[in-house]
């Protein structure tokens, strides 16, 4: 009988006399944060129409010099606003500017730090694959920023806790893009560029292996009873991923005695999707069942699942669902989702006030103050 020829594998090394060169193109980058604390803000803000932060340097690669500026101004409706801008002062010791027309490519994000130390009134982009690159020039007066960053009335509202003990704290995050980096080497070289790929592949392999325990019910020691299904799971994994499950199995509760957890207040698919996320960090039902998954994540205190749901729902905001998602975010303590939803509403006030769907959703709420405060605020 004829034997099948041995399979040939594509070789990326020089075992057959060839040397494969590999190249990599990346970009130099730097990022840092600066906290600007303005003490006796009520007095400082009355000393002139504008005031500036100290000049600050940041980042280990470029060390440019930056400065923030606050201006007080009124619009045509005589509403008092604070504008906030970031400007380039000089190019620092690491990369001197040769002329006033030289450009530094960067982006930024402003936020006010509230009484709880949390950033709020966030304006600007979060770094990511689609981060927009802005051009800062020395000759530019104000640089980049927001002419209507916040109204003076909102800034001093006691319930917002933005000015604490007459002190205002502003956080500025800056992401700087430099020139292109080129790297050349052999495919067999164990270069640093391969490390992130290997780490990602290793994480995916771990998730696949742990997920196999759930899919094939290997070594399970607890039963999850839904409305119509019986799912097998592992106490240790549930306890590691959820403080609520940890409490169930650590104290003398019925679940610990019977090794059974009943979850009948959610659809079977939602419970199974929750378990998939517990074991692998993702679920295929995220796009279509994010609202229910957010609720079950809140019930069992699963922060990773909850954050994924918030991002999914924030990306899906539109004029038809924004009212429902605002109520959901408010009821289930989802701060990121609520912030994004409020911002979407403020940008689309006129359209939403004319929308029957939005008005019906608003009127269906027993407490309409959540909507009314946003719709009729001045920012």
UniProtKB/TrEMBL annotation:
Residues 220-287 form the BTB domain. Residues 31-174 form the MATH domain. This is Protein roadkill. Gene3D superfamilies: 1.25.40.420, Apoptosis, Tumor Necrosis Factor Receptor Associated Protein 2, Chain A, Potassium Channel Kv1.1, Chain A. Pfam families: BTB (PF00651), MATH_2 (PF22486). It comes from Orchesella dallaii.
């Amino acid at each position: 009988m004829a034997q099948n020829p041995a399979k040939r594998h594509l070789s990326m090394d020089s075992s057959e006399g060839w040397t494969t060169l590999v190249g990599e193109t990346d970009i130099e980058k730097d990022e840092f944060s600066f906290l600007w604390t303005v003490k006796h803000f009520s007095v400082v803000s009355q000393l002139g129409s504008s005031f500036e932060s100290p000049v600050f340097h940041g980042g280990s690669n470029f060390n440019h010099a930056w400065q923030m500026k606050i201006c007080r101004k009124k619009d045509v409706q005589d509403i008092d606003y604070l504008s906030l801008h970031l400007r380039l002062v000089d190019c620092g010791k690491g990369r001197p500017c040769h002329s006033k027309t030289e450009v530094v490519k960067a982006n930024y994000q402003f936020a006010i730090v509230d009484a709880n130390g949390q950033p709020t009134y966030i304006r600007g982009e979060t770094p990511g694959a689609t981060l927009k690159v802005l051009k800062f020039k020395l000759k530019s007066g104000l640089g980049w920023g927001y002419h209507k960053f916040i109204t003076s009335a909102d800034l001093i509202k006691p319930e917002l806790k933005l000015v604490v003990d007459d002190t205002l704290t502003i956080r500025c995050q800056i992401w700087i893009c430099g020139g292109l980096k080129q790297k050349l080497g052999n495919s067999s070289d164990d270069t640093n560029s391969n490390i992130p790929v290997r780490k990602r592949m290793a994480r995916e392999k771990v998730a696949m292996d742990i997920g196999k325990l759930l899919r094939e019910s290997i070594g399970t020691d607890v039963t999850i009873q839904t409305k119509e299904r019986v799912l097998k799971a592992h106490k240790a994994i549930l306890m590691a991923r959820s403080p609520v499950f940890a409490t169930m199995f650590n104290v003398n509760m019925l679940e610990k005695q019977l090794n059974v957890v009943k979850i009948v207040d959610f659809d079977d698919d939602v419970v199974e999707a929750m378990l998939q996320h517990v074991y692998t960090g993702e679920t295929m039902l995220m796009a279509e069942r994010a609202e229910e998954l957010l609720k079950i994540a809140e019930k069992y205190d699963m922060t990773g699942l909850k954050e994924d749901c918030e991002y999914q729902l924030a990306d899906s905001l539109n004029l038809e669902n924004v009212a429902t998602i605002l109520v959901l975010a408010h009821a289930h303590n989802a701060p990121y989702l609520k912030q994004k939803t409020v911002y979407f509403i403020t940008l689309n006030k006129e359209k939403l006030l004319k929308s029957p769907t939005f008005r019906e959703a608003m009127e269906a709420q027993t407490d309409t103050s959540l909507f009314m405060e946003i719709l009729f605020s001045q920012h």
